[in-house]
């Protein structure tokens, strides 16, 4: 994409870490997981890194092999001056030289690949970076949207809560007024009798409510 190209050109002077090797990058996806696009790009970078590691190991082994062959050549060159072993040493010398030529060719091929690989890794890593940034900014937008919705819900609930607190206080005040008027009108003795009767009715209603709940369950 043209926008991606211009964006990457603007980032040329910035060093981007290899994302798959950064634990903080992996934690970006702790809640929602990685998208299929990110997983594919991650696998591409991992494969290139594995290839680079394998080639470096192969190159080390080839260098060891070449050193062994060089030492063998030195020994066989000395052996060609001895009468009995001259022919054997000469054949071994020719074989070692042939093997060294093969090793040199393989080493050159690997070194060429190792020159190209960092560019391929960097390119794949940049693709992964762009897709990761798209994911992160989408998550930021989604989180902000949900946070705004929750804030609106809290504000609405807060208004309802205030209204209900006022209603509750009014009901309690009204109860105290009713009881006070009943006390003044009917007197303490009569109220005590009705209080006991009301307590019995409340207990009975509570018992029925429990029984009905048990039947439903």
From TrEMBL:
Coiled-coil regions listed in the entry: 31-127
Keyword tags: Coiled coil
UniProt superkingdom: Bacteria
The protein's name: Uncharacterized protein
Species this protein is from: Roseburia amylophila
């Amino acid at each position: 994409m043209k926008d991606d190209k211009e964006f990457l050109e603007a980032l040329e002077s910035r060093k981007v870490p290899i994302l798959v090797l950064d634990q903080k990058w992996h934690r970006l996806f702790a809640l929602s997981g990685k998208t299929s696009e990110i997983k594919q790009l991650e696998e591409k970078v991992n494969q290139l890194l594995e290839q680079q590691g394998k080639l470096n190991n192969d190159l080390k082994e080839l260098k060891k092999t070449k050193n062994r062959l060089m030492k063998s050549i030195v020994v066989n060159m000395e052996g060609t001056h001895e009468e009995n072993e001259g022919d054997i040493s000469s054949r071994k010398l020719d074989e070692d030289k042939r093997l060294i030529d093969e090793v040199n060719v393989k080493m050159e091929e690997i070194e060429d690949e190792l020159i190209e690989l960092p560019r391929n890794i960097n390119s794949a890593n940049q693709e992964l970076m762009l897709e990761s940034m798209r994911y992160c900014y989408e998550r930021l937008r989604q989180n902000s949207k949900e946070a705004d919705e929750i804030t609106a819900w809290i504000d609405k609930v807060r208004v309802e809560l205030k209204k209900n607190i006022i209603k509750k206080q009014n009901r309690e005040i009204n109860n105290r007024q009713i009881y006070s008027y009943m006390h003044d009108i009917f007197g303490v003795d009569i109220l005590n009798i009705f209080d006991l009767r009301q307590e019995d009715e409340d207990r009975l209603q509570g018992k029925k409510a429990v029984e009905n709940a048990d039947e439903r369950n």
